[in-house]
Design brief:
Blueprint: H1 8-11, H2 17-40, H3 48-61, H4 67-88, H5 96-110, H6 120-127, H7 136-141, H8 145-157, H9 166-185, H10 190-201, H11 204-209, H12 216-235, H13 242-256, H14 263-286, H15 293-312, H16 318-325, H17 354-363, H18 384-387, H19 404-422, H20 427-441, H21 443-446, H22 461-474, H23 491-498, H24 500-517, H25 519-546, E1 549-554, H26 563-571, E2 577-579, E3 588-590, E4 596-602
Parallel strand pairs: 1-2
Antiparallel strand pairs: 1-4, 3-4
Amino acid sequence: MQRAHLRVDDRNDKLKLFDVGFFILVYIFSVFTVSTALFIVKIPITAVHGALSLIMTVAVMLLFYRKKSVLRITAAAVPVIIVCIFAMGLFFDLTWDGNCYRKTITYILRQGYNPIYEYFYEAVGRIGTIWNIDWFKWYDGYPKGVFTFSAVIYAMTGNVETGKCLNALLILSAGFMSFEIIKQLFTVKPWQAFLCAAALCLNPVAITQMINYYDDGALGMLFFICIASLLYLTMNKGGSLTRHCYAAVFASVAFGLNVKFSALIFFAIIVGAFFILWLVRDMLAQRRVLISNENLRHIAFFASCVVFGVCFFGLSSYVVNILRFKTPLYPVFGPGAEDILTGNTPAALLVKSRVGQVIASLLSPVSNSLDSAAYSKAPFSFRSEEFFKNWGPETRLGGWGVFFSGIFILSLIVLIIFLLARYKQNRAMCGYALFTFGIAVVPSAIVPGMFWARYNLLLYIVPVMALISLFAFAGGKNSGKNIGKSGGETSAENGVRNSAPARLIAPLVLSVMLLANMSTGIIAGGYGFVTSLKIRGQLRELKTLSESGVVQVRNTHVHLDFNGQFINMFDAGIKDFEIMRELDDYDGTFYPPYPVFYKIVPFE
């Protein structure tokens, strides 16, 4: 008999991390929903959008929880969101992309740009405070999900840097939700599930991008939410989180399609694979090919995710691109398309197949140079420059982390041993393991550019699978569930279970390795914080100087109008400044690593 779809708090009124993660996801979804709806009626982004989105979030939560529980969850989640917003505001985005165009579009949206009804350059001409629009193709055509959310946060705080809090919020949302799902699906203790969730979401790419406007980490978290939710629906049909997981899939797909165009391919692979799995499972159970009413409902559900994401959320990109440029994927496909991948591929990888590129990058030392030769290094070996000089939010070779090649190989060995040891006892669980492994690695053979770790966060699933297997094999709580639920134990397994050191050493060693692999992201975060403190002091000093004269500024290179740096000047209260193409005589510089030269011209 199928279990009733109970609310989470109908069984246990205790607040769970899952509830907070779910609230955060719903809030992100609500911000984009409210903003898009108001764009349609020609209302620009304001601080009120944030409050309206919170009201919508609470209303949605009431569909899943009792009123008392919603109040408790809101009281816990709202401070988390606020802390993330202001914590990320302490970091300046120091990246090329962030200062060149990502802050720019966030600023223009905040100033009244309506991407449904006007071109970017029209808004710039009307607003009149942005200087370089060389990237206008991307401003008009690129999905607006991240930028719209960021602009709402910016409108509430007055600090453009707080807008990049989306990465941190999605890390928390994915981590909290996957923690509960892992805990319910597998034979692991809460602290073990927490380690697994942390290893998945606190990966080097996500940590590094948490303090800037890059959106690959955010999209990766949406993939993880979607996969974890679909796994729950597959392995625990009718469980207490069923309705929540359907909602999480809807939100992650609809919003994810508006983070990057490439999300179309990834979600097609992920959702399509699970749907085929459900069809095959039903066919084997019924011994005939069938499209049941349940499968028809799934088709309708997945179609609604895409339609909502493309036709409503995507009004500002997919729909207007068709109307303006005759292709929904402008400017990456169709007339005027730009190939950004070939020019960003290291020369040594151009001659390799897609799989060959991924393997070469996986086994290479960390490097971001286009001229780097792709050569292998010994697993777990490293050089100091891999932690400092070569690491960044878009590292091209070895970008999964300094130690990831060794961790990945070790994880493959663990999974092979686990499958061989457990296949006869629990074929269904081994099948799910192989299926999830396929979800993690098959895109590397299908999607271009997967050598670039920022595009291929799915590979982080493999070590987490190995970690879950080790904890489960060692024997966590509720050993009757899922992993190892059928069949007896061998004497060797009994020996492992009865030896506390033996059953903890292997998973803890892998956990330490994964923690060490996070070091690159942690180091990048430390550098970003120290540099941000320096910039904040420089802006305060410059504001004081601006009271005595006009500030003339010039970027490091004449052709680099990093609007993001000038937006930071606005936010710091420096209003009266001039952008100069030539500034040979200057008083000083600020804002590393792309310094801005400045000169104070006294008021007459």
